[in-house]
Input
Amino acid sequence: MATRSRAGAALAAPLLLLVACAGQPADREEQATSAVPTQPPAATAESDRPPGTGSQDATTEPNEDAAVVDPTEESTSTAPPGPVTVTIGATGDILPHAPVIENANLNAGGGADDYDFAPMFDDVRDLLEAPDLALCHLETPISADNTGLTVPRVLIFNSPTQLADGLASAGFDACDFASNHAFDRGVQGLLDTQSVVEDAGMTYAGPPGQASAADQGVVHDVDGIEVAQLVYSYTLLNLGSPNTDVPDGAPWLEQYLWPARGAEGILADAEQARAAGAEFVVVTMHWGNEYQTEPTQQQREIAETLLGSEDVDLILGSHAHVIQPCETINGKFVVYGMGNFLSNQSPDTTRGGLRKATQEGLVLQVELTRESDGTLSSSMVYQPTRVDLAGHVIRLATPGQNAETYQRTVEALNSLGEGSCDAEPMG
Output
């Protein structure tokens, strides 16, 4: 069962040099309504909401055989601390287009303001509950009162409050919101999204709605092991290319833009997180060209710089809406793009003929081990997934089920060449 995490702060580093920005096509997340079924899909009951953030002190019985220690006597032990290990789970974009929201309404019986996203995660719940820390990437704001929700063919998003409960019940411990849609609902949207995510018992990582909360980096307490997560987007204003444009009246949001921070700025943030006690540092990047499997040269250069440092242990990428390759650099993993985990994107739902790969995503499980001498070892397995548009249920893709998706995902992850990614599919 995944361990709940707590929010902590790593001090923001000073603004450093801007990296060169490659061109990028505009976002075009289509929302057709033809895929909405007339009846809700079969569903199991939603599990109880997970406990809130933080951990409770364990109560233990006294050990009558324990040795009595003299507090005035200095320890003579010279044994180094043992290795520490965490398993981190991650998925692609959570992007509830209007048809996804309609199916959630049907799952809940069709009543006004009633939504149930939990059945959409039934097939993958065990995979999300297994890691010590399961991370989701939110592509949309979440409403606090279910007003102003997403409508078809309008690329300004807002998801129902119940989405957070569905994500928490699926096994997610935390969600980041460093996205090109982060400012779709302005400062109030940031405040609402963070509040709703935290009320559901998950940790929020990403641009906050107030300057006083703008410390880049959240620390997840995983059974006493501190895992820092740093999150960055190429834009917050849904512009088509990497940029340094900051929303009016919210200058504190600049630190969540990787074009403004640059690779050196991200490393400064990671170094401060490590100095504050983090055993592991995970960087999530909203980057790359939409609908393109191949990472940009800029993505690869930034990954090389970050993973070449001792302060960054893992990079998780989003935004492309298709699976992009994995690469092992300095013994550590970068997954340039994790695809769409939940969305309505598909060649069957758009007039623009999106790729089949937009209907696909994956579940990652990355094991990080820090040895007593400080060296890091990593291993990774993954499970390809596919969104079933009849109910928007996330299905497993295996050699015997959704085999085309399975093969396409394996090929995409290894598309940088043999030996570029030392990861294996699950099972």
Notes: The first helix runs from residue 98 to 107. The two ends are 19 Å apart (CA to CA). Confidence is low (pLDDT under 50) at residues 1-80. The chain has one domain: 84-425.
